[in-house]
Amino acid sequence: MVGAATARELLLVVAVAVVGVLLATVAAFTPWPVTPGGAAPSGLVELHSPATPADSSDTASG
């Protein structure tokens, strides 16, 4: 049988885990504040593949 101290410790670990999941959920689904005069609200990021040497006309050598 599990002792009282072990049961309390397991309950504490589970409670801390539940609080952590709740805080992570709140942080993930809460809208980000928009600051006046700041950057535009976030949106989708455009993904671009890296330029190949044949595609790149700008080189660092001069």
Brief synopsis:
This protein is mostly helical and 62 residues long.
Structural commentary:
- With 62 residues, this protein is an all-alpha fold.
- It has a domain at 1-30.
- Helices cover 42% and strands 0% of the residues.
- It has one helix and no strands.
- The mean pLDDT is 79.
Number of helices: 1
Mean pLDDT: 79
Show unreliable segments: none
Describe the oligomeric state of these chains in a short phrase. Answer: single chain
Strand composition percent = under 5%
Characteristic key phrases:
62 residues; 42% helix; 1 helix; mainly alpha
Helix and strand topology:
Layout: H1 4-29
